[in-house]
Amino acid sequence: MKSDPVSLEVLRGKERVKYLKKENGQVKLISTMSSREKGKKENWKKNSQTYRYKTAKVRKNLAKLLDETPHPSSGLVIQNNNEVRNLAAIRRRQQLRRRTAIFYSKISRLQERLNREIRNKEKYRKRCQRLIKNNQTSPEAKVSALLKNIKVPEVVRKKLILSEVLTKQLKDRYINLKKHVEKKKYFEIIKPDLLKKHKLLHLSKPFFRHGTYKRPAPGK
Asked: Tens of pLDDT along 19-71?
């Protein structure tokens, strides 16, 4: 302190200010303090002493630790650094394995869903094919189903097949018509009166659906 004139002058200034405060009555003397104020001062002294003791202890331990710490170029520090790097690498591998397991689980679930959708698609495709096949039964098959376990002359069978062929052609032509007027004219060409005469008009209802076969209302 004496070798540093600046610090010495600062310390003297602080002491001078403290002395002037006492002279001017700004600082209470112990003899003029109340018991409560004396207790506060005693507590302040104890707390200050404890703080200085702890600070000195921390500084001492820090200095001791710095003295015991080996030089960075020593083998112990290198070994510690290697251990830290190994631990970091192990942690990264664990995270990678965990993420890989999650991805494989997602892929497995998606593959299972894909296989299920493929099976459903194949099932509905076959069902659709069966329905189309049933709807496209040939006239010969229809006649055979109609005459099952019934013996008829061959000419009767041929006429029944001819009837099925004509019925199918008429129905297909009628379905391909787009406008209502065209369907009505097509129905009139087939001679509905003749169908009615032979009591066959009701058999034409399944594919003549525009309502022209209905009886007109009275007064029209």
From this structure: 777 777 777 777 777 888 888 888 888 988 998 888 888 888 777 776 665 55
pLDDT score at 220: 45
State how far the Cα of 65 lies from the Cα of 57, in Å rounded to an integer: 12
Q: Which two tokens stand for residue 80?
A: 């510690």
Total number of domains in the chain: 2
Helix (H, G, I), strand (E, B) or coil at 122: helix
- pLDDT mean across residues, the chain: 77
For residue 149, is it left (φ>0), alpha (ψ between -120 and 50) or beta?
Answer: left
SS3 assignment, position 69? coil
pTM, rounded to two decimals = 0.31
For residues 194 and 144, membership in a common domain is answered with yes
Residue 70 maps to a domain: no
Q: How many CB atoms lie within 10 A of CB 143?
A: 20
Buried/exposed 54-75: b ≥16 CB within 10 Å, e otherwise: eeeeeeeeeeeeeeeeeeeeee
Residue-number span of the structural domain to which 147 is assigned: 139-204
Is 114 inside a domain boundary?
yes
